[in-house]
Amino acid sequence: MTVTGYSPIGTILKIGGSPVAAVFDFTPPAVSAGSLDTTTLNPTNKFKTSISDQLITIAPFDINVYASPSALATFQGYLAAGTQLDVEIDFTDGDGMYMNAANGGSCRISGIKPISYKAGSTATDAFTLTLTPSGAVVFQTATGHWYDSVDTITIAGGDFGITSPTSPKTLQAVAIVSGTGFSFYPPVADLTFTSGTPGKMTVGAHTGIVTWVATGTSIITVDITAKSSVQSEVTGTAS
Prior knowledge:
This protein has two domains: 11-33 and 53-141, Pnp Oxidase, Chain A (Roll), CATH 2.30.110.20; 150-238, Immunoglobulin-like, CATH 2.60.40.1080. Helix content is 5%, strand content 53%. The chain contains one helix and 22 strands. It has an eight-stranded antiparallel beta sheet with strand order 10-11-7-2-1-8-9-12, covered by helices on one side. Strands 14-22-21-18 form a four-stranded mixed beta sheet, with no helix packed on it. The protein starts with 10 loop residues before the first strand and ends with a strand.
């Protein structure tokens, strides 16, 4: 399965309100106030004045993301056009960083650098995007959680086998946002794993780590702890 959204730390980049990439590392932009505007008042005598424009200057900053090749093409289009964008960075806990019209700002992509790329690959690749904010950058706490728009959760790879020598095995859950196909690795601490037959294999409730106990099978279930209606199950075979 190709993951097309959140990174394991659960942060996403949105453009125009739509999720487009998983964020795995970035440092918020530096902000300074009162840059000087030195203007020649008289072109003959070269009189100049240094007047503070009293504006807040927001420096460009880099953000490392996982994105599909098709997303890269979209980013390159924005870069070439110099498009001012509504940009939002959403964190797992509901906090967000906003550079959008609703908060008095915008942002453009001013640079792209591949971190990893394989020719012909359809897998998710890593890129560094340089973002240049214009106007306000707003940090605020939003109501809600990463799972509010999630209606499906699965275990990557489906049914699995485990033997005593290969034990333990870590299961990777994947969450899918309703109606978008946007998938991501959810924070494992917010999930609950259970083993239907712990006499055959056990599983860490909030780790997804399966441990072999005895030969046989067990149904492993995963759900979102705070939204248990969203769940799925796979069969584990211990041999």
